[in-house]
Model the fold of this input.
Amino acid sequence: MRIHIIGCSGSGKTYLASELSEKYNIRYKIIYSVLYAFLIIVTAGCGVADQSDTSDSNNPTDTDITSEVETSGSMLNFNINGVKFSMVFVEAGTFVMGSDNTDVQFNESPAHEVTLTKDYYMGETEVTEALWNVVMEDGGGSTTLPKTSVTWNQAHVFLDRLNEIAHKDELIKPDQNFILPSEAQWEFAAKGGNLSKGYLYSGSNDIDEVAVTRENSGSDSPGNVGTKKPNELGLYDMSGNAYEWVDDYGGDYSPEAQTDPQNTSGQNYVKRGGSNYHYFGSEPYLFTTTGRYFYGSTDWTIGFRIALQ
Done:
């Protein structure tokens, strides 16, 4: 967070909160408390203490959106205008993608080796209504329900706007961007990454432990995020609840070993994870970490999860 202090003469200096903490050997929370008191005193006198970015104040984005990020262990915790979301670290690695199961609607064979060469972060949950609305400047929305009825292209518009906010406020590095995960990134994370225990579903072999389904929810509409057990990485709802777009087009897998694969052409996009529109009893393969569905439009069961790389 950058803090700009303006004196009576109009001159000023910009500090990072971390710089003030180091310089004066005080904690961040104390800095914020002192600054709030300083704001009242200076405003009553001759100056202003402004905790916002120093960019053009005529831009609505600069004045209307405040944001911050903090690191907690292997997670990044973001806050945009009071809407919080977390990203979980996923270490690069090699895994077996797909399966040899042919009793499925959309081909997920052959099983093949995939290597992801870059670390990344994956959203702890699906994007919520509130996060969508604060980024798209709609306001309001549930902080617990996933944003659904989103097309693949609309998800990319959201990401463009989120990246604009994140770069402007220096929440992420200049060479980082929020993205839709590739299908390989999504599956690796769903399997638990390098911490994988080889479960059939994301986090368990018992579907009811980790997934919202038609049977255990009594509904065909996605419910609140994070109500079930997370997987090995701490990710929720990668099996069940809402479908999640990935950044690939649908297509057949190659039997050859792949490095950072992504299918960038085709007619339909890939959605992953299954949803409670489906009865688990009749279509269990959709809820597995390898299950795929190719789709071209959207409906009330489709949302998305973001990655950061």
About this structure: Residues 28-44 form the longest helix (17 residues). Residues 151 and 297 are 6 Å apart (CA to CA). Helices lie at 17-24, 28-44, 60-64, 129-136, 152-168, 183-190, 207-210, 214-217.
